[in-house]
Amino acid sequence: MSHRHFLLILLLLASLALLLALNKSERQQSFLFTEDEYPEDLDTLEEFIQSYYLLLDSDSYIKEYSFIHPEFNLLTNETPALTEFYHKLLELRAGRRERVVIYQIGDSHIQSGFFSGTARSALQKYFGNAGRGLIFPHKLAGTNQPDDYQILSKARFGSISRPRSLSGYTLEIIRPATMRILPNSFFQIDSKFDRIKVFADHTAQFSKDSGFQKINPDNHPACSSHLLSFDQLIGEAEINLPDSMQRLYGFSLEREEKGLLYHSMGVNGAGFYNLANDQQFFQQIGILEPDLIIVSLGTNDAQGRYRDQVMKANLQLFMDNLISANPASALLFTLPPDSYKHGKLNPATSSIEANIREYATEHNLAWWELRAVMGGAGSINTWRQHKMAAKDFLHYTPKGYMLQGHLFYQSLIKGYKTYSENGELR
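RE: above sequence
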C-alpha cells in the first residue's frame, strides 16, 4: 500500500472517531483494503472516502424526516446491471471520461421537475455540472413545466400529443418563431450554458449564418439534432427557429466542461400502458446516448380498472421496445410511490411492484423501492400529515418530490460508494 493511501486511511479513521464514535477495531476492519481490490489505474480509495463524507451530509438531511425508512434506501439487484455505469462515474471523477448521461422516463411525478431536478443538482455537485440537459416549452404546449427554466415566445404553436417525443411532447411550428430560453438556479446549481442542442423533425435546416451545425449527418431515424456553441457561459439565449422546421421536440442546455448530464421526460398520465408502442419515442432517446435509463412509471397503470396480465404485457412490450432501440444503456426501475384510489389504499400498486421486480430479476436489471423507503403501504397518509403529499393522495407537494429526489440520489451514491470501496458490487 502506498504512503499516500496509508495517510488517507489514517485521516478517515480519525474523522470517523469524532463523527460516529465507533469502536476502533470495527473501523479498521471495515475501511482497510488491499490494492488489488481496486480497478487498475483508478484511485477508488479516495473516491470511497469522498462518497462516504457525501453520505454523512446526506444522512444529516434525511434525519429531519423521522417517518422515512432509510434502512430500505438501497438499489436492489445492482450486479451486474449497474457495474459498467458505476465504472463510468468513477472514470468521470478521475478525469478519464468527458460525460456520463442519465435519462429518466416518468409521469406527472417527473414532469413537475422537482424529483429529477433535486437528483440532478445533487449528482452534478459531485460528478460535475455538464448542464441542465433536456428542456421543453411545456407552457407553450399548454401544460405545466419545471420551475428551473422559462421558454418564452410570442408566436402561436400547435401541440401534438402523439406520437411522444424524447421530451414527452411536440410543438407544431405554425409559422417562423423566436424562442427566448432563460434557465435559473432554482436547484442551487449554476444554470449557465455554452451549448444548445435543438431536436426537431428532419425538415429543419438552419442557415449557415445562424451558427447552428447539424450534428447527426447520418440522419437519425426519428429526429434531427443541431448544435449552437458560444465562446463563454451565458445565462440566456434567443433562438430563431427556421422556416423549414415543422416540429420541435426539445432543447438541451449543456456545458463543454466535463460532468454529468441528467435528462428527464415526464408526461402527465403516462404509464407503461400508453407509452409501450411509441416507436418514435424509443428511437429518439438514442440521440442522447444515455449511459443509464431510469424508468419511473407505474402510478397511472394502477389507476382505473387494473388487470394484472394486461400490466405484464404492457411492461414487456415497453421494455422490449426500449431495449431494442437503446441496447447499450444500463437500466434502472424506480418503483411507484404510495398512492390512494377512491380514498383508499390502492392494492394495484403492490401488484405493479411485484411485476416490475419479477421482470427486473429475470432480466438482471436493478430497481429502487420508493414506497418501502417512504414507509410502506399507506405511508402517503403520513406524508400528507407532514404536508409532503397533495390533497388527492396521488401526487406530492414540491417539498415531497424534492425529498424523494434526494432519497434516490442517496441510494445511487450508496451503490457508487460500494463499487468504489470494493472495485465491484457485492
